[in-house]
Design a protein that fits this description.
The chain has about 230 residues and is of the alpha/beta class. Helices cover about 35% and strands about 25% of the residues. It is built from six helices and 13 strands. Pfam families: YgjP-like.
Length: about 230
C-alpha cells in the first residue's frame, strides 16, 4: 500500500511516497529523480511515517543538493571519470576523445551508449574473472551483465553471478574489488566476519571500497538509504 504526499523541503515542494510493506525494517531513500521514499512495516501508521521523515529533513535536503549538483555536471561516466558529451555526425557511433565522449548525433543515444558500455564492461570483467577465479579457486556457473537498480552485483545460490552494467562507470580498482566481492559469495553467501576475513586475503582493506561505493554510488546507480533497520 502506498500513499503520496507533498512536503516542503529547502523551500521547495517535493514528492514523498510512503509505502507499507510486509517487513520489519524502516528505510528512507532519496533517489536521483529527487523522489523521497519511506518504506515502513504494516503496523506503523502513515502519520508516524510522516513524522519520521520530518525529523530527517536536513539529511534529505543535503542529499537533494548533492543530486542537483551532480545533474548540473551532465556528461557520461566511464571508469570513474565524467566526460562531457559532444555530438556530431560521424561514421562511428560513439568514441572517447581526449577530453570528451563523441556521439553520432543521427543515432539513438541511450541504445548506443548501453551497447558500448556492455561491450567495454564485458571485456574488463572477463579479464578480472580469469585472474581471480584461478587465484580464489572459485568458479561461477554463469555470468550475466544487465542494468540493476539497487545492487552492483548479485551472487545466486545456483552459482550464477549478475553484474550491474553501470560498473563501467566506476574506477577499475573498484570493478576489480566487486569481482572479488561477488566471487567470495560463492563460498560465503553473506557478509559475515568470516566472509570479510576471506576477502581480505585477496584485497587490502576491502571495506574501504564498500565505503567508497556508499559515498559515491549515487552518481552511478540508484539512491541513498538512511535507514535500513
Amino acid at each position: 500500500m502506498i500513499k503520496k504526499y507533498k512536503v516542503l523541503i529547502g523551500n521547495k515542494e517535493r514528492e514523498l511516497s510512503i509505502i507499507k510493506k510486509k517487513k520489519k525494517n524502516i528505510s528512507l531513500q532519496v533517489k536521483p529523480s529527487m523522489e523521497i521514499i519511506l518504506s515502513i512495516p504494516m503496523r506503523i501508521s502513515y502519520s508516524y511515517g510522516l513524522k519520521l521523515v520530518e525529523d530527517k529533513y536536513a539529511w534529505i535536503e543535503n542529499k537533494l543538493k548533492k543530486y542537483s549538483s551532480a545533474a548540473d555536471n551532465s556528461g557520461v561516466y566511464y571508469l570513474g571519470k565524467l566526460y562531457p558529451l559532444k555530438t556530431e555526425k560521424s561514421e562511428v557511433s560513439i568514441r572517447i576523445g581526449e577530453e570528451n565522449i563523441i556521439f553520432n548525433s543521427s543515432e539513438n543515444f541511450d541504445l548506443v551508449l548501453n551497447q558500448w558500455y556492455e561491450q567495454k564492461i564485458k571485456r574488463i570483467l572477463e579479464g578480472y574473472l580469469e585472474k581471480h577465479t584461478k587465484l580464489m579457486e572459485l568458479y561461477p556457473k554463469k555470468i550475466k551483465i544487465k542494468p540493476l537498480k539497487s545492487a552492483w552485483g548479485i551472487c545466486y545460490s545456483s552459482g550464477t553471478i549478475t553484474f550491474n552494467l553501470n560498473l563501467i562507470k566506476v574506477p577499475l580498482d573498484v570493478i576489480e574489488y566487486l569481482v572479488m566481492h561477488e566471487l567470495g559469495h560463492l563460498k560465503y553467501p553473506n557478509h559475515s566476519k568470516e566472509y570479510w576475513e576471506y576477502i581480505g586475503k585477496y584485497i587490502e582493506d576491502p571495506k574501504s571500497y564498500r565505503r567508497w561505493l556508499r559515498k559515491n554510488g549515487y552518481k552511478f546507480i540508484g539512491g541513498e538509504t538512511l535507514w535500513d533497520r
